[in-house]
Amino acid sequence: MGRTDAFQPHLLADRPGDGQVLTTSCSIPSTFGPIGLINAVSHMHRRGVHFVAETSTGQSLFDTTQWDEAPPVNYDPPVMVNPGESIQVDVHLQ
């Protein structure tokens, strides 16, 4: 099984403020085959109030308002993401 470290986007904010939304996405390279996601976790700090991740096809992957130790989501069967598709992550800050 391969590692997915290359697909972990990092969000940076100079000064989080009320209502700020940080967005990033990660596209699956055309040189890859379909990728099967078996689970997902979020990572926010205290200023994070909402974490949302979904695929470019509209498949919801993760949605939480819990900044501290949000439970992981497991997919059975795996959620398939194809080359050329992407995963978008939005983090809402207070």
The residue-averaged pLDDT reads 85
Distance between the termini: 38 Å
* Beta-strand residue percentage: over 45%
The CATH architecture can be named as Sandwich
User: Number of domains in the coordinates?
Assistant: 1
What does this structure look like?
- This protein has 94 residues and is an all-beta fold.
- It has one domain: Jelly Rolls (Sandwich), CATH 2.60.120.
- It is built from no helices and six strands.
- The strands form two sheets. The chain has a four-stranded antiparallel sheet with strand order 1-6-3-4, with no helix packed on it. A two-stranded antiparallel sheet has the order 2-5.
- A hairpin with a 4-residue loop joins strand 3 (48-55) and strand 4 (60-64).
- It is globular and about 40 Å long.
- It starts with 20 loop residues before the first strand and ends with a strand.
- Residues 1-6 have low confidence and may be disordered.
